[in-house]
Amino acid sequence: MFQVNDNYQKLPGSYLFSTIGKKVSAFSAANPDKKVIRLGIGDVTQPIAPAIIAAMHKAVDEMSKAETFHGYAPDLGYDFLRNAIVEHDYRARGCDISADEIFVSDGAKSDSGNIQELFDVHNRIAVCDPVYPVYVDSNVMAGRTGTYDAATERWSDVIYMPCTMENDFVPDFPKETPDMIYLCLPNNPTGTTITKAQLQEWVDYANKAGAVIIYDAAYEAYISEPDVAHSIYECEGARTCAIELKSFSKNAGFTGVRLGYAVVPKDLKCGEVSLNAMWARRHGTKFNGAPYIVQRAGEAVYSAEGKAQLKEQVAYYMKNASVIKAGLKEAGYTVFGGVNAPYIWLKTPAGMTSWEFFDHLLEHANVVGTPGSGFGPSGEGYFRLTAFGSYENTVAAIERIKAL
Ligand SMILES: *Cc1c(COP(=O)(O)O)cnc(C)c1O
Question: What pTM was estimated for this model as a whole?
Fold first, then answer.
């Protein structure tokens, strides 16, 4: 009789977005006259920019003729895209990264879930708390996290790095030494980030500890402050300790188009073993390439026209972020984030848990957000609002919250 991978049985139910969905449906059914505004899920709402749509149309037409048809893409990505990535995301910022260190994928969620395959099952992982759930859950599936304690909501073998207002949401170096460190900067869910100097300390720490940093830079396009690194490779020594994950979802609205990439430097080694070679082998075996049409769309992200249009799109969302932040401050809330990321992280009013505030907001303002406790125990007492809604809805939601 076959046996299943028992690690899957260890996963606690992730009820966050389904619980939110059920609560919102129940409220809407009971109050059909109320218009609910959703600032909960981190999905974009603006359409794909015209320069990117034009590139996709052109690529679709190429697929219609034998002379320009494209079948399987190269496993690791087309050169036109890998070269554009190197040029614009790395060389332009003085980072020493070459095209054969770029691995094009269908998105950063897949990469952040799959990358752990390269590492031994006994490695210890360190994660921020609160955290993007994929990092922990993918390691649970692999059997790397020990046992789950429902009371503390923690895994016995995971090293947690609390990020709260007490430490300005900057993780402290853990007491136990990790082998793999997950960092998402700018951060989802807190909307905060760290300076380049602080990131350099993490790179130095990882090199000293012999740890690898898995650096999720999905929100890089939202960085507005000059002392924040756009890539971990701006830090000295990152080539020997860091893997960077990027996504086209948040900077270009590709959540439904699907495109991302991982950077695995050739200097990243365990003894003589190259992680770059391992990831190439893994990609070649398990991934058959991102679609040609989508990679052409990705290339257009780096065109002059595409860049200008996306700059406007990011500015649109960041205008929402400042509307949320200013409005909440005016209403007396303590708020964080929203400067280098499209998320606002607020302290719930005294005496209210994250879920109590969720219910309060839904019932009295008809606004949906995300309870901070859904991202980890240190998220209790916080609440996330996203800037990814329309400007009109964002303004209306904040007016309602101010009127509470
Ligand atoms: C949205 C998001 C991603 C992007 O995932 P895709 O699969 O590229 O859409 C990755 N990491 C974090 C933390 C995110 O919030």
Answer: 0.98
